[in-house]
Every structure is written in C-alpha cells, then in structure tokens.
Design goal:
The complex is a heterodimer of chains A (about 475) and B (about 230).
Chain A (H helix, E strand, L loop, with lengths): L16 E7 L5 E8 L5 H4 L8 H5 L7 H15 L9 H33 L10 H7 L1 H22 L8 E2 L2 E2 L5 H9 L6 H21 L1 H6 L6 E6 L11 E5 L5 E6 L4 H4 E4 L8 E4 L3 H4 L2 E2 L2 H7 L6 H13 L10 H21 L18 E8 L2 E9 L5 E7 L1 H4 L1 H16 L7 H12 L4 H4 L9 E6 L5 E6 L1
Parallel strand pairs in A: 1-14, 5-10
Antiparallel strand pairs in A: 1-2, 3-4, 5-6, 6-7, 8-9, 11-12, 12-13, 14-15
Helix pairs in contact in A: 3-4, 4-6, 4-14, 5-6, 6-8, 8-14, 12-14, 13-14, 16-17
Chain B lengths: L4 E5 L2 E5 L5 H7 L23 E4 L2 E4 L10 E3 L3 H17 L14 H8 L16 E4 L3 E4 L8 H5 L9 E4 L6 E4 L1 H6 L2 H10 L5 E3 L12 H4 L12
Classes of the chains: A alpha+beta (about 475), B alpha+beta (about 230).
Chain lengths: ~475, ~230
C-alpha cells in the first residue's frame, strides 16, 4: 500500500499531530494513522547529568503537567538515593501528594473547560472563531470564570508545594525541600469564597453534574463517538483505591477481567513492551502477555476509573458509583466518557487536597531522608493523562547513564490511532474531500485523550494538525493543514 | 599622611582609606560596582573585568586599582554599564548556561548580574562549546559547561597542607579548570561546601545537595545582587 510520511522538524517545539488516511480502490478507508512527528530527545540528553537534577530537568518536557514528570523522576531518584517509596517521611510524601493532586486539579480543569468544553458547548460544526475558550467566555461568563479560578486554585497548590506554579523544585531525592507553612495552608483552606478549597470542591461537583446532564441529552455523541473496546491500565492503591501518586500496576481487559494485578512497577519491563513503528516517533507500548496485536491498552481518567475498585473520597465515590453503574460495572469504552471520568477525578482531587491541607504532618520538619545508594530506579505515577513511567540508571559518579520514559500520551498511542481510525471510517469513508467538520471530529477524538502533543497551542481552538487523504495509488488527493 | 583620602565616584564625594581598592572604597560609601571574579577575603585577580571603571580616561579593574587622593572615578555611566553587560553576555555565550535546570539558579552571581543588567538575549552568537560534567572525586562534580574561569576555586580552596585542589589547565579558549580528584575527595565536608559556595556559578557541585533550598528562599530571590551595598542617594 502506498503511503507518504513527512517528517517536519519545525514542529519539534510545540505539539504537532499528523493524520494520514489511506483509501483503497473504491475510495473506502483502508487505514488511518496518527503520526507524532515531534522529537524531543530527553532520554538522550539527560545522560551525564547529576541524578538529583533529573526531577528539575525532565519536567521541562511539559508546561501543563510538569509536576507529573518532576514527581515521577523524584520517585525514581528516591530509589537511587536508597530511600525508596516506603522510606519517605510522612511530611515529604504528603507534600508531594498535595503537589500532585494540585497538578491533577489544574490540568483537569484546564483540559475540560479551556480545551474540551468548546466542542461540547458549540458542537463540532461550529465556526472555529467561536469554538475556543474565548467563545466560552462570550457564551457563558460564569462558566469561564470558574474555569479560570479552578485552574488557578490548582496552580496555587503547586506554588505552595513546589515553589513555583510551573517548573518548581519542591521534590528532591529522598524527600521535599519545604513544608507547608500555616499561612500557605490557611490561604488555600480559609480564604473568602470563591478562593478556597470548599468552593472549588462544590464547583468541581457541579462540573460533574454538567457533563452528566450533557451526556443525558447527547447520548448518541457521548456514547457512540469513537467508542471501541480495549484493555485498561493504571496504578491503584494497595486496597484497590484510585491513587494518583503511588500504587501497584493493574490492567483489566475489555470485560473487566484482570490481566495484571498488584504488580510492583519496578518490574514493569517484565510486563510491558514497546513497539517501534517506522511512521511515528512515538512508541507503541503493549502488555507482553497479550502480545503486540492485542496487548495495547488505554490509560488516563477513563482507564483509571475502569481499573480501580473505589474512589477514597465520599463525593467523588458517589459520582464514581453512578459512572460505573452506567456500564453495569463493566469497563467503559466510550472515548468521550473520558471527560466525565476526568471531572470525577477533578472532584476527587479537590477532596484529597482538602484532606491533606487539614493534616498537621504538612507543618513538620522531617523533610529529607538518606539511605544506601543504588544504581537504578523506577518511578511511576498517574499523571493527568495516564500512567507515567520514569526509569533511570546512574553510574558510580552519580551521573545518569540511562533513561527510559514512557509518557501517558505514548501509552495512549494505539487508542488515539483507533479513535482516529474510527472517525475516518465513520465520518470520512467514501468521500474524496476533507471538510472543516471532519477535521474537527478528528480533533475531538484525539482531544478526548488530552494528549500532550496538542496542549501547547490548541487552547485557542486550534490543534496543530495535518490530515492527508491518500488514494490507492499513493497519491495525496487532499490535504488540510492548520 | 592623612588616613582619609577624598575621591569622587560619578561625581559623588566619597572618603577612602589608603590601600583600599576603588571597589572597596565604593562599597564602603554605599556604591555598588558590579564584580564577578572577586571574592571577599581572597586576593583579587582582576580577570573578569566586570568591575571596570574609568579613571582619568583610562579603563581600570576597580577590584585591583588602588584609590589615590582626588581621584575621579566614573562607574555607573551608560557606556561602562553597557560594557559590563557585554562582558556578562560573552560569559553566557562562551558556556552552556541552562538556568532553568541549574541548581545554582537563584544563588548564581552570573545570573544575578544578568538580571541586574536586564540582559534578555546576548548580542553575541552562542558558541555552544562541547563540554561535559566531569567527576571530581567522591564529593564533587565539575559542570564544565558553566565554568567562567574566575579562578576563585584555584585561589581559595586548599588542603590542610596548603596544596591547591583546583587549577587552570591550557590557555585562552582551551582554558579549563582542572581538579585533583584525590585532593578533592580528601577535602573536609565544610571545605567541599565552601568550594561550591565560592563558585559564582554552578560549576563546582557538592554531590546530592542540589535544590535543597526552595524557590523563593535562595539568595537572590530575596534581594537583587548589590542591594546589600547600595544606599539610595540622598
């Protein structure tokens, strides 16, 4: 089958996706692919750096969820520092949790309100001039205000724990470099409404209700769009609880049967392989026990709620029960329900932030611990977009000799490709021309996974995207670029 | 002979003691002359030229130039300030200074001067030299990408029996700091820390202590460089 792959180094800096759709002789879709043509090279240039620098260096992978990279690297470096996940002081562990849940809160708020809500509010065929966050502001001032303040609150939590809202330095190997002062705590806990955690939790719950209501009114879209069965993977707490910061790996199949359970993530290489395909810089991870063909899986909010047994905060648990009941307790495979799951996680994050703010351990001074150094460390956590893997080796001079990062978007590579394929087969099939509405639907499918490739620029409604329609002879019959 | 010498700095009348350098006299009068290679307590080398002033139309390194009666010093004048800024810019382009991930950020004198001079983008092209992080015994690492060859370490860090631990190797653009790994390993903890603290940039790193001070509590987070010396003009 003829095909054309274009590598565009100018797109390295910001997220850039490219979709190719291959047609057969009868103008039917043969195959659709999402190519990631960014090349970052972090795994290479982190080599030689001092290991304690990794949490600060690798977080520069992203401006939206740097905390996830910061903490995943710090967790790996805890192991190298001989402290390990179990050896952290309660203050260090809880400060990191607070930082991470602040991050989940801001990232989920950003994604839903700034990036995804324009699609829901205005529809896929709406004028791109209004289908963006500015359009949301014009359409619903109250919603837009909440969007900004919800995100701001998460950022304030990060500021108080990491020292900066973006690219802070809080987590260090073996612990944390600051505790939470009573003033910082009170500012988050007790500020006059709406700038306090209670208001944020209320707003998050109302956001869940909003998406539930939207789903009830738009079942065909929400339930049918880019829905396909898959395996699901995430970390879960020891008791099966939803846990974003730490836990064991669990994977379930499309029916909810466990493929992996209680797997120590230090052994991830035993269970997870990565396939390289020549047409994308992004690898394709898979569960080794199921093989390359069938072992692909989803990660992220939808996967997490499919994998965990319960949500350990009351208001989010109630929402989780409704969410689970909708599919009769079976895994939910509806791509757009990721938005619903994401908002339940937003609510949960708000509740956890409040619990942590009330914990006196955060004002204690036992910040860093030391142990017997080791030469290798793995750190995993649940980032906003899904399971994030960091793995490092360090030489005798304390310099990093190997790094392997499997980021959330990489884990979702195959699902995003399937989602794009779904759009191609259901929306583009049999047509020789790409319309604006088709492009939007490709975007909506990808956006449900909240991939990092788009986070840099699509806040104003434009995902950098190129779609090519290629016929059976390999000729590009149409190309749309934005 | 009087113990008081009268000089002017940018027209401001100042008093100085015999034997003081212009930079010391300025500081004693509440005037900050930016400097980089100089370190309090060490013999000034006059190597970086950031502290250059003009006396009688001639350019002098104020950290080594002694005061004399009636001397009229020009310091905070536009052309000299731009020259200082240019020197700092050259130091940036000669190395590989990635402030966002450097553990000395916030405590770095080069960075602090760049902020003071409002440096945005250097006027000179980046050289991107190929340099590396080098092991320096059990306690230290040398991040050669950041070295500005101030030689503070070569001058000020010695073993108990007065052996130099650091020293320059090669000349001109090839010049680099060499460290004796055995002597560096034998440095007591206090001196290993001192080596890191005396380095104006993030070249000498005490292992495993990076990023221990949170953002907001680092030296230049609290006050800009020079503000401890400067007094507002009355």
């Amino acid at each position: 089958m003829a095909r054309k792959i274009t590598i565009e180094p100018v797109t390295r800096v910001e997220g850039h996706g490219k979709v190719t759709i291959l047609l057969n002789d009868r103008n039917k879709v043969e195959r659709a692919r999402l190519h990631i043509v960014e090349f970052r090279g972090f795994e290479r240039f982190v080599q030689g750096r001092p290991y304690w620098e990794a949490p600060v260096l690798v977080q520069r992978l992203c401006g939206i969820c740097p905390v996830s990279h910061h903490l995943a690297a710090a967790k790996a470096m805890d192991v190298i520092a001989g402290v390990g996940p179990a050896g952290l002081s309660p203050t260090a562990e809880k400060m990191r949790r607070l930082m991470h849940y602040g991050q989940m809160f801001q990232s989920h708020a950003l994604h839903f309100f700034h990036l995804a809500s324009p699609d829901l509010l205005f529809g896929a065929d709406a004028d791109p001039a209004i289908r963006n966050v500015i359009g949301v502001i014009a359409h619903d001032r109250e919603l837009a205000t909440r969007a900004v303040l919800l995100r701001k609150f998460g950022q304030e939590v990060i500021l108080a724990t990491a020292g900066k809202k973006i690219h802070g330095t809080g987590a260090i190997p073996g612990g944390i470099n600051k505790n939470l002062s009573p003033e910082e705590r009170d500012a988050l806990l007790n500020c006059p409404a709406p700038y306090n955690v209670d208001t944020m939790i209320d707003w998050a719950e109302e956001a869940v209700e909003f998406v539930k209501g939207y789903q009830a009114k738009n079942r065909e879209l929400m339930d049918g769009f880019a829905a396909f069965p898959s395996n699901h993977l995430s970390l879960v707490g020891k008791d099966g609880a939803l846990d974003f910061y730490h836990g064991a790996l669990r994977a379930v199949d499309a029916e909810g049967r466990r493929i992996l359970d209680d797997v120590d993530y230090n052994d991830y290489l035993t269970y997870i392989g990565e396939e390289v395909r020549s047409w994308s810089y992004m690898k394709f991870p898979y569960l080794k026990s199921l093989g390359k063909e069938d072992g692909w899986y989803r990660v992220g909010p939808l996967a997490r709620l499919n994998v965990c047994d319960f949500v350990p905060t009351p208001r989010a648990q109630k929402q989780f029960e409704t969410f689970r009941a909708y599919t009769g307790g079976k895994p939910n495979h509806m791509s757009l329900h990721t938005h619903w799951a994401r908002l339940i996680e937003l609510l949960h994050s708000g509740e956890v932030i409040k619990q942590l703010l009330l914990d006196p351990d955060l004002q204690k001074d036992d910040l860093v611990r030391k142990g017997k150094k080791t030469g290798e460390g793995v750190g995993l956590l649940e980032a906003p977009r899904g399971t994030l893997f960091h793995h490092y080796r360090v030489d005798g001079n304390d310099q990093i000799s190997m790094a392997n990062l499997i980021v959330s978007t990489t884990n979702n590579n195959e699902p995003m490709n399937r989602a794009v394929d779904w759009v191609a087969r259901n929306v583009i099939d049999g047509r020789a021309e790409i319309t604006e509405g088709m492009l939007n639907r490709v975007e909506i499918a990808i956006r449900a996974y909240d991939p990092c490739l788009s986070c840099a620029t699509h806040a104003l409604g434009k995902m950098p995207l190129e779609v090519e329609l290629i016929d059976a002879a390999g000729t590009v019959v149409d190309r749309k670029r934005r | 002979m009087s113990n008081i010498i009268k000089i002017t700095i940018d027209g401001r009348e100042c008093t100085a003691r015999p034997g003081q350098t212009v930079l010391e006299a300025a500081a004693a009068n509440g005037i900050y002359i930016p400097s980089l290679c100089r370190f309090e307590g060490l013999k000034p080398a006059g190597s970086c030229r950031v502290c250059t002033v003009r006396v009688g139309g001639r350019y002098q390194a104020s950290c080594t130039f002694p005061v004399s009666e009636g001397m009229a010093v020009e310091s905070a004048v536009p052309d000299l300030e731009d020259m200082r800024k240019a020197i700092v810019e050259m130091l940036f382009v000669e190395g590989n200074h990635m402030c966002p991930t450097c553990e000395k950020s916030g405590n770095c004198e080069l960075q602090a001067l760049a902020y003071r001079f409002r440096m945005l983008v250097p006027r000179f092209p980046y050289l991107f030299p190929k340099k590396a992080v080098e092991p320096a015994g059990s306690k230290l690492l040398m991040e050669q990408n950041r070295c500005i060859k101030c030689l503070r370490c070569a001058t000020g860090i010695r073993t108990k029996d007065n052996k130099k631990v650091f020293g320059p190797l090669h000349r001109s653009v090839e010049k680099k700091l060499f460290v004796d790994p055995a002597l560096a390993s034998a440095l007591p903890e206090r001196w290993a820390r001192k080596a890191m603290d005396r380095c104006p940039v993030g070249c000498i790193l005490r292992k495993e202590v990076g990023f221990a001070v949170p953002v907001g509590r680092r030296k230049y987070d609290k006050a800009p460089i020079g503000s401890d010396i400067e007094k507002p003009r009355s």
